[in-house]
Automatic annotation (TrEMBL):
One annotated GO molecular function: monooxygenase activity
SUPFAM superfamilies, per database record: FAD/NAD(P)-binding domain
Natural source organism: Herbaspirillum aquaticum
NCBIfam families per UniProt: MSMEG_0569_nitr
Entry keywords, A to Z: Oxidoreductase
InterPro entries linked: Auxin_biosynth/cation_transpt, CHP04046_FMN-dependent, FAD/NAD-bd_sf
Keyword Metal-binding annotated: no
Name of the protein described by the UniProt record: FAD-dependent oxidoreductase
Any one Pfam family match given in the protein's UniProt record, by short name: Pyr_redox_3
Length: 427
């Protein structure tokens, strides 16, 4: 890793902000082309994988989809799902394969354009660059509702990014709010450990793990769904606002069926609404949320059926899902925390973006950067690793290589316009 220096602003042809898989991927291309660059990482390389995932965390997509530049998955379980420590080892192996120039423990405080390029104010001093790649993803500020301020002080509350394992929470029942991938998997983790779980269900869709003899991800890959550009998606850029489908790779991979959890004793509610003293109130509509999640899963199966028929693929038939539990007609809409012995609340309602440190008028009314495949209207400023930046795989191990290569081509084109040579082309 690079060693800090002091004095006047240090200049690099390209500065990459963020040392996760996105920043490292564009660094790989730049190093292959012998282009001077530096990666600035606020914490340590791969920080989120190391420190913001719980102990039993694993990928929800098969290992064969992991394909960082020049470093595809080479393990002996391509159809399995890497666990947290294996993911970290995979990322560390990628770093060791090309030794990127990274400066860890450096937080960027401000980025702005100058007449000659870009200026960065960081925790260890100033930098300048001809071009900058912002590779910090889109999950920056954990979302916790203001109502959380009114929770009794003796009830532990954490965000999903802080959850470690069931033993890290005090004894007692646990309220989990949110049913995206994190919420469902954390609720399952607690449930399997024998904890009594109360789950506030939202609008997240679900997907089956397998169907007609293959992992659903493999079917969707064959159907070229993961190659679908965002501007051709039926929802357009609106898909960026959608919650990911919940499923798990745990224990070799399986569905997450909230109805099954309910049969086994998990208490399901509608969407979190408010807090009145020690009583949590939930909105109506639990049945609708469960039905819609199932409908999305079944619609994906419909598309797979059509693909199999159109391609005349021999595949086993499979019975469709039948709900194993239904909410009562009179939904339970309140939870008395004290009476039920709830000792902890885990908020699993996502993150907000924060690009306030970038002083360039490229953002929309919600703070999202305007870009085309990561290329902004500001010459020499790029984004990499945003959810649905170009395809579903953007920011993931499966699609970051394509996005990084695209930005590399733009970086080298701009260098050529400025008369700056590329000493060797990336493979």
């Amino acid at each position: 890793m690079a060693t800090p220096s002091s004095g006047a602003a240090r200049h690099h042809s390209v500065i990459i902000i963020g040392g996760g898989q996105a920043g490292l991927s564009i660094s790989w291309y730049l190093k292959q082309a012998a282009i001077d660059h530096l990666v600035l990482e606020k914490h340590e390389v791969g920080h989120a994988w190391r420190n913001e995932r719980w102990d039993t965390f694993c990928l929800v997509t098969p290992n064969w989809q992991c394909n960082l530049p020049g470093y595809p998955y080479r393990g002996d379980d391509p159809y399995g799902f890497m666990k947290k420590d294996e993911i970290v080892a995979y990322l560390d192996g990628f770093v060791a394969s090309f030794q990127p120039p990274v400066r860890e423990g450096v937080s960027v405080q401000k980025l702005w354009r100058t007449g000659e390029g870009w200026h960065i104010t960081a925790s260890d001093g100033d930098y300048t660059a001809d071009q900058v790649v912002v590779a910090v993803g889109g999950y920056h500020i954990p979302v916790v509702p203001r109502a959380a301020e009114r929770l009794p002080a003796d009830i532990v509350q954490i965000h999903s990014s802080q959850y470690v394992n069931p033993e890290s929470l005090p004894e007692g029942e646990v309220l989990v709010v949110g049913t995206g991938q994190s919420g469902c998997q954390i609720a399952e983790d607690l449930h399997l450990a024998g904890r009594r779980v109360h789950l506030g269900v939202g609008e997240a869709p679900r997907v089956a793990r397998t169907y007609r003899g293959k992992d659903v991800v493999e079917w969707l890959d064959k159907m070229k769904y993961y190659d679908l550009p965002v501007d051709q998606h039926p929802l357009g850029t609106g898909v960026r606002e959608k919650t990911n489908h919940y499923v798990t790779g745990r224990d070799g991979g399986r569905d997450i069926d909230l109805r099954k959890f309910a049969l086994e004793g998990m208490q399901l509610y509608g969407k979190f609404d408010s807090l009145d003293g020690e009583v949590v109130r939930f909105g109506a509509g639990l049945k609708g949320y469960l039905d819609e999640a199932d409908a999305v899963s079944e619609s994906i199966k419909d598309s797979i059926d059509k693909f199999i028929a159109a391609q005349q693929i021999e595949a086993p038939t499979e019975a469709r899902y039948v709900p194993v539990w239904q909410p009562p007609a009179e939904e339970v809409r309140t939870l008395d925390l004290r009476a039920r012995g709830v000792s902890a609340v885990v908020w699993c309602i996502g993150f907000r973006t924060d690009f306030s440190w970038i002083s360039e008028p490229i953002f929309d009314g919600r703070g999202y950067p305007g870009h085309e495949r990561g290329v902004t209207a500001a010459p020499g400023l790029y984004f990499l690793g945003l959810p649905w930046q170009y395809t579903w795989g953007s920011g993931r191990f499966s699609g970051i290589d394509r996005d990084a290569r695209y930005l590399f081509d733009h970086i080298t084109a701009l260098r050529a316009q400025a008369g700056q040579p590329v000493l060797s082309q990336a493979a």
